[in-house]
Amino acid sequence: MAFLNETIRGTSVLGALRDRLAGLADSWNRYVLFRRTYDELSALSSRELSDLGISRSMITRLAYEAAYGKNA
What we know:
Elements (H helix, E strand, L loop, with lengths): L12 H31 L2 H7 L6 H10 L4
Helix pairs in contact: 1-3
């Protein structure tokens, strides 16, 4: 005779809160990375950006890709 033991693991209130806080922390960290990248690129002169092969119109996109990935 075969027996099957199955445990259903429900999400507790504390587990849900922990997951939500982890998501908020991840979102905040990505935003901070975006702002830091954006601010650092914006602080460069046009000549320095040109030397890097970057135009001013690319700064927002590059900062976004650095924080959220290319396919986000």
